[in-house]
Amino acid sequence: MPGLEVKIGENEEIMIKGKTIMKGYYKKPEETASVLQDDWFKTGDAGAVDERGNLYMKERIRDIIKTSSGKFVAPQFVETIIGNDKYINQIAVIGDERKFIAALIVPAFEQLTEYARKNGIIYKDNQDLVNNTKIIEFYQERIDHLQKVLANYEQVKKICLIEKEFTIDGGELTPTLKVKRKFLLEKYAAEIEGLYRE
Questions:
Q1: Which is more confident, 64 or 114?
Q2: Which CATH number fits domain 64-196: 3.30.360.10, 3.30.300.30, 3.50.30.30, 3.20.20.70?
Q3: What is 11-39 written as a DSSP string?
Q4: Percentage of the chain surpassing pLDDT 90?
Q5: What's the whole-model pTM score?
């Protein structure tokens, strides 16, 4: 970007400096001080610069998960790698202040029901299907294969299959279709506690 300097600050935060960067928030000195540091604008995005000078954005810093062992995990990065599977419709990675990373997954039911039919898995409805041990094992095996590229601490260790799709009206998604992680943590608190029970 011509006329801009880029550097990586604390917590891998992308910081930018240049003539086109704002001087501050109008009549809001405290807010200005929170985002400007020696004329460097703190973007709120985590990223990295490679040896060629390419800038890679990882995640919004406020969305980064910190496990109980102090490891930082970018949930959207993990979701992108796993969420491309044809059997997954939606995924929300969780694990803040927990021993390991887990995920809430809404299956792609059209593909899943076809898989169940072909493999002789008998079920009454979608709820019955997502609670089926063979189906859960099937998903975990697929995820284990997909996430081989991730560091061990980034990998999803347990999953909870969700019967209903995440929607804006249901409160699980923002108007820009981003997952509301805090809302999901509250809505599925019992299921999540089940994942982390010893």
A1: 114
A2: 3.30.300.30
A3: GGEEEEEETTS----TT-HHHHHHHEETT
A4: 75
A5: 0.77
